[in-house]
Design brief:
106 residues, initiation factor, Eukaryotic translation initiation factor 3 subunit f, protein biosynthesis, translation initiation factor activity
Length: 106
């Protein structure tokens, strides 16, 4: 343990850097989200509509929640959701993208 007091006001990122550790659970969760997204997008049912945001309904007030698609776009480093939607159609390309992003640890 690093024995960092709670009064030190250090961020989680700074503590992880001092301990020379990486966030492994976040990477695992993102990988599972990407795998699930590939299944959903190729299937094209109700989950596809909800995930892409084309499902009609009222939006709540306040700050919008982060969408799965936006989080995965930043994880893959593409920045565009449309690039992800195009890549999902090709299963081999999608698997390669997931493997590369997981190896990079972003």
């Amino acid at each position: 343990m690093l024995r960092i007091p709670w009064t030190a006001k250090k961020t989680n990122e700074r503590v992880l850097n001092e301990a020379n550790k990486r966030r492994s659970r976040v990477r695992t969760i993102r990988k599972r989200q990407a795998t699930f997204l590939g299944h959903v997008m190729r299937r094209g049912k109700l989950e596809h509509l909800v995930t892409t945001g084309k499902f009609e309904g009222k939006r709540s007030r306040g700050r919008q929640r982060e969408k799965i698609m936006d989080g995965l776009a930043t994880w893959f480093g593409t920045g565009k959701v449309s690039d992800i939607l195009a890549a999902v159609k090709d299963r081999d390309l999608w698997r390669d993208m997931i493997a590369n992003a997981y190896k990079q640890g972003t």
